[in-house]
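Reply to dn_fold:

You asked what the input looked like. This is it:
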Amino acid sequence: MSGESLKGDRDSGICPQALTLYANEVKKLSEAGVQVALVVGGGNIVRGAELATSGTQRSTADYMGMLATVINGLALQDALEQIGLYTRLQSAIQMDAVAEPYIRRRAVRHLEKGRVVIFAAGTGNPYFSTDSAAALRACEIQADVFVKGTHVDGVYTADPQKDPKARRYLQLTYQEALEKNLKVLDGPAFVICRDNNIPIIVCDITKPGRLAEVLRGTGAHTIVKDFTNSVLE
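and this is what came back:
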């Protein structure tokens, strides 16, 4: 999930109402027996790529962005635990006072015990986006599906807020997503999922109940997979 999703209607920062909404959405999945791992961005606090364009050294900017994801991870952990879910926050940058170090086998064990695992600090390396980090973690824990939670209900042929003729893809091939340079995920994330055969679901997580719907195969969403062809709504 993007960091921007946590700011709600605010210009930046963390909105308590948004935290509560997403925590309850995760709880519905957990109660249904779904193992849930979360990767959260930091764009509501710091966007490394934007800082880099304004003069900050790229590596420094990216590390600042990674630290912002830890702040968001702590907020999500607290919101989830307040509604009765057991969680573990794992950071790719070691900071033992607030999070476990990322260890793949430990993360898998937490999931097997029914805990929600939050992966923070991206990959721990600059020049890699949160999308790429999420795709990497999905591969490492052998996830069944990678869900990209946004404020749009799928992938469109154009920006639906600017083009009234934009159409939503019901299903989309990895290759077309890459060739059309669709901006829902960055290119490396699509490639990682394609090469490891992990389906990608893009949906609007700001709508209550939508996350559970799409994992049942209903509700508005786009699925990106190794289809023979793409299908428009």
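DSSP finds eight helices and nine strands in the chain.
Hope that clears it up.
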